[in-house]
């Protein structure tokens, strides 16, 4: 099966606003749609500790987003032979010792069937605790199985966040309750960012 991990199509330099600016954008967009809103800038919690128990401390400095694979691997043909290695992707993204986290499709050769995945890989320590969910007919009342795999691989596609693995960075943290507008949370955030930043 071909390893497609080095097939980099493009590097996109994005506008990176300050957390203070993002905080103000979130406050404005969220208060239009929710009755109770709190927005703070804080250090990302240590995700290596309970209840998270991930392989790295959390979102760190030098964040990169890797959009890998995509719908072209699903349609018109189902390309389960298109495999990806997170270790190689870290090198391609110029963060070979990154913390890597994000959703995707589980590695077909490892799992033996189609599965959903949440990647959790610490490239600095070499530790992988990626979670997968797979359909398991005949598994009693539970029709699916969740488990961890220790291989930093996946098939078809993934949306990965890579950052320095050593220390958590500052993040914008928000809580909302009681929706009063038409928009759900995701749409509210997306539209608020689009309205404020436009084509930046």
Overview in brief:
Keywords: Hydrolase, Metal-binding, Nucleus, Zinc. The protein has 200 residues and is of the alpha+beta class. The protein has 4 helices and 10 strands.
Q: Your description of this structure?
A:
By secondary structure, the protein is of the alpha+beta class. The chain folds into 2 domains: 17-44 and 169-200, no CATH class; 47-165, no CATH class. It contains 4 helices and 10 strands; from the N terminus they run H-E-E-E-H-E-H-E-E-E-E-E-E-H. The protein has helices spanning 19-31, 86-92, 108-111, 185-197; strands spanning 34-43, 64-69, 83-85, 98-105, 116-122, 127-128, 130-135, 144-149, 153-164, 170-179. The strands form 2 sheets. Strands 2, 3, 4, 5, 6, 7, 8 and 9 form an 8-stranded antiparallel beta sheet that branches. A two-stranded antiparallel sheet has the order 1-10. Helix 1 crosses helix 4 (185-197).
Helix content: 10-25%
Detail the poorly predicted runs.
none
Indicate how many domains the architecture comprises.
Answer: 2
Question: Could you state the order of secondary-structure elements as H and E?
Answer: HEEEHEHEEEEEEH
Question: DSSP strand (E) fraction?
Answer: 35-45%
Amino- and carboxy-terminal Cα gap? 39 Å
The average pLDDT value, as a whole number, equals 91
> Count the strands?
10
The dominant shape is globular
Largest sheet: 8 strands, antiparallel
- Structural class by sheet pairing and helices: alpha+beta
| Radius of gyration from the alpha-carbon trace, in angstroms | 19 Å
Query: Helix count?
Result: 4
Main location: nucleus
GO molecular function, one term: zinc ion binding
Subunit structure: Monomer.
GO cellular component, one term: nucleus
